């Protein structure tokens, strides 16, 4: 999992992390065992625990943010790093143990078939992942709204298990939303810019430690805010792919 001198055809795993010292070592160990040839970068989002030190102790690159930006800001930092280092593919992967590294091949495969962004869906018929009633209702409203705003149906708009090609990384390195519910806004941005966005079914686990960022009492306010934001997201033209000389 060391930095490679030839990265254009390689995959970077981007792990945004905020106070994940309980779960990060096991997550990194699983990645090392499952995808040993992939590079890994941990974006420490202003943690107050040993997250950054543990990342470096496990031999991966750690980008330390001076204060907490939120997951959107941490991801944009990771995307920018991927673009600057010339990676052709990237995986967004949680530090909390929810994501199963054995599912990485499933979300990478559509990139080879022309997809720009691939979402690993918890609700597409594989596994038995469950959410609480209030959160489930809110997620359903968000799915319905995004289908109409993006013109495409998704079963899991908030999944943080995603794969990106170089064109998608280039856009998100500068334009990735940094507010709460960034994952939903990112889907609308990508679809409205005519990127090829797909979903694949994956299995996920419950988080094995730390504290979830989505607390029930925040859901109503933030879902309303994100719907207003999405409704005002303008369409934009996709930058044409460079033609190889």
Give a concise summary:
The chain contains 8 helices and 7 strands; from the N terminus they run βαβαβαβαβαβααβα. It has 245 residues and is of the alpha/beta class. It is globular and about 45 Å long.
Explain what the structure shows.
- The structure is a single chain.
- The protein has 245 residues and is α/β, with parallel strands linked by helices.
- The chain has one domain: Spore Coat Polysaccharide Biosynthesis Protein SpsA, Chain A (Alpha-Beta Complex).
- It contains 8 helices and 7 strands, in the order βαβαβαβαβαβααβα.
- A 7-stranded mixed β-sheet has the order 3-2-1-4-6-5-7, sandwiched between helices.
- Helix 3 packs across helix 6 and helix 5 runs parallel beside helix 8.
Question: What is the number of helical segments per DSSP (H or I, 4+ residues)?
Answer: 8
Reported for the largest beta sheet, the result is:
7 strands, mixed
CATH topology name? Spore Coat Polysaccharide Biosynthesis Protein SpsA, Chain A
Structural class designation: alpha/beta
Rg is 17 Å
Indicate the multimeric state: single chain
- Report the order of strands and helices: EHEHEHEHEHEHHEH
Instruction: List how many beta strands DSSP finds.
Output: 7
Mean pLDDT: 84
Tell me what portion of residues adopts beta-strand conformation: 5-15%
Strand order, main sheet: write it out.
Answer: 3-2-1-4-6-5-7
Can you identify the CATH class?
A: Alpha Beta
In the CATH hierarchy, the architecture is Alpha-Beta Complex
What would CATH call the homologous superfamily?
Answer: Spore Coat Polysaccharide Biosynthesis Protein SpsA, Chain A
Principal-axes shape call: globular
Helix content estimate: 25-40%
* Low-pLDDT runs: none
Please give the alpha-carbon distance between the first and last residues: 31 Å
Compute the number of structural domains. 1
């Amino acid at each position: 999992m060391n930095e490679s001198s030839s990265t254009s055809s390689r995959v970077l795993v981007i792990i945004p992390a905020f106070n994940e010292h309980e779960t990060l070592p096991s997550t990194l160990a699983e990645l090392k065992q499952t995808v040993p040839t992939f590079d890994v970068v941990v974006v420490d989002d202003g943690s107050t625990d040993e997250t950054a030190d543990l990342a470096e102790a496990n031999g991966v690159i750690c980008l330390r943010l001076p204060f907490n930006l939120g997951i959107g800001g941490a991801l944009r930092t990771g995307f920018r790093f991927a673009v600057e280092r010339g990676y052709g593919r990237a995986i967004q992967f949680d530090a909390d143990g929810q994501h199963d590294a054995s599912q990485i091949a499933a979300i990478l495969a559509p990139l080879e078939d022309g997809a720009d962004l691939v979402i690993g869906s918890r609700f597409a018929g594989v596994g038995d992942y469950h959410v609480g009633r209030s959160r489930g209702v809110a997620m359903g409203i968000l799915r319905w709204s995004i289908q109409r705003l993006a013109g495409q149906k998704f079963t899991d708009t908030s999944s943080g298990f995603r794969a990106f090609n170089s064109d998608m990384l280039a856009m998100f390195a500068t334009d990735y939303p940094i507010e709460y519910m960034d994952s939903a806004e990112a889907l609308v941005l990508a679809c409205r810019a005519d990127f090829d966005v797909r979903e694949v079914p994956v299995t996920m686990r419950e988080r094995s430690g730390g504290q979830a960022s989505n607390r029930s009492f925040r859901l109503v306010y933030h879902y309303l805010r994100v719907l207003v934001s999405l409704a005002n997201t303008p369409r934009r033209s996709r930058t044409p792919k460079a033609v190889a000389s």
